[in-house]
Design brief:
Elements: E1 2-8, H1 27-41, E2 45-49, H2 58-73, E3 81-84, H3 91-98, E4 106-109, E5 114-118, H4 132-144, E6 149-153, H5 173-182, E7 186-191, E8 198-202, E9 205-209, E10 216-217, E11 225-226, E12 231-238, E13 243-249
Protein name: Icc protein
Keywords: Hydrolase, Iron, Metal-binding
Family: Belongs to the cyclic nucleotide phosphodiesterase class-III family.
Length: about 250
């Protein structure tokens, strides 16, 4: 048996749902199409790994979260939704509109054999960082549920991607990775931020990023977008701790 997770990321919704962004892509339209496709997969959980909004202004950001809520309510997806913030998000309104004011870190059960932990790596700029409190929280969760497998959800990329997005890094990612490697029950870390799909492994843990639901970034040395289509990641969490995954593009 397995537990099916759909990971969407980097929606970058504008307050104006008619507004387009890079390469003329309208993020509202592409997110609507992605959610329609996700519904056909019948996931057991949907994870949104940050950057729901593209707006710098907090009031406009609130409108973008309300637009997401409307799309979600009309998507016919019945699975629970776990949302974490990205560097573009506004914590207060994201927390109240999409997170039921639960705050972060946030943990959910993914069937009887897995725990999912949503973390906050947002700082005051585009870079990422994880707090000492959240690292202690993870230790406590693994110690509380030592027989279960654990999946971590972050926004910033914990491993260098080799492209221009490494200019927007996670400052204490080495500390985070060391923590993950010491906790063998942590089997997967998923993230967004880099607007591209990737998969690497460190010991028993797989690190996976998802494409954006709107425009994609090229993994080049200089800023560039790629011609890849919007998409999302499907993750199968097996009862024995194995992880299988694939990308779906629309």
């Amino acid at each position: 048996m397995s537990f099916k997770v759909a990971q969407i990321s980097d929606c970058h919704l504008f307050a104006d749902k008619l507004q387009a962004g890079y390469q003329g892509v309208n993020p509202y339209t592409t997110l609507k199409a992605v959610l329609k496709n996700v519904a056909l997969c019948h996931p057991d959980m949907v994870i949104l790994s940050g950057d729901v909004s593209a707006e710098n202004d907090a009031a406009k950001g609130l409108v973008s979260y309300q637009l997401f809520s409307q799309l979600w309510q009309h998507s016919n997806i019945t699975a629970p939704l776990l949302v974490i913030p990205g560097n573009h998000d506004h914590l207060d309104s994201l927390n109240s509109e999409l997170n039921s004011s639960a705050g972060w870190p946030l943990s959910m059960s993914a069937g009887p054999y897995w725990k999912v932990h949503g973390l906050n790596t947002k700082t005051d700029d585009t870079s990422g960082e994880i707090s000492a409190f959240q690292l202690r929280y993870l230790n406590e969760q693994v110690n509380l549920y030592p027989q279960q497998n654990h999946l971590l959800v972050v926004h910033h990329h914990p491993r260098a991607c080799g492209g221009w997005m490494d200019n927007h890094p996670w400052h204490n990612r080495d500390e985070f990775i060391k923590h993950v490697e010491q906790q063998r029950q942590i089997k997967a870390v998923i993230y967004g931020h880099i607007h591209q799909a990737s998969e690497t492994r460190s010991q028993d843990c797989v690190f996976m990023s998802a494409p954006s639901t709107c425009w994609q970034w090229a993994n080049s040395k200089e800023f560039a977008a790629s011609g890849e289509a919007p998409g999302y990641r499907i993750i199968e969490l097996a009862d024995n701790g194995l992880v299988d995954s694939h990308i779906i593009r629309i």
